[in-house]
Each structure stands twice: as C-alpha cells, then as structure tokens.
Amino acid sequence: MSSNIDYKKLTKRELELLIISGDDKAVDEHAIRVQSGEIKPTRRYTIEDLERMTEEIKKKAS
Asked: Where are the alpha helices (DSSP H) in 2-62?
C-alpha cells in the first residue's frame, strides 16, 4: 500500500477496508488500537476464519 497513509488518523472502518485489501500496516494499527481499548472488537475470529473470509471476498471480487 501507499507509504503516504497516516494509519493513526484512519477510522475503524477505513482500517478494516485496508485490512481486507491486504495491508499489513493496517492490521498492525488495528491490533494496537484493540489492545489499547480504543477499538472494541465486535467479534473474535481465528486466523483460519479470517483466511476463509478473505478467500471468499477475493472470489466474489473476481
């Protein structure tokens, strides 16, 4: 992704969209915010769940 993005200023939704697109820095920023309590996770997912959801999204997009 672009190095011009200031991840600390993004909203939760913007971070989620970047995560879906595969941006590792967005994942890191989201994790930091969840750990600090700034973002409250609405649901917990396993790595396998996230990988499966990502594959489903990619299939729908193509």
From this structure: 12-20, 24-36, 47-61
Per residue in 8-48, pLDDT (tens digit) is: 999 999 998 999 898 999 999 999 998 999 988 777 778 88
Smallest CA-to-CA distance from 26 within 41, 45, 43, 6 is with: 6
Residues 30, 16 contacting (CB under 8 angstroms): yes
The CB-side HSE value for 36 (13 A sphere, CA atoms) comes to 9
Q: How far apart are CA 59 and CA 62, in angstroms?
A: 5
Phi, psi of 53 (to 5 degrees): -65, -40
pTM, full prediction = 0.61
Rounded CA separation 62/3 (Å): 26
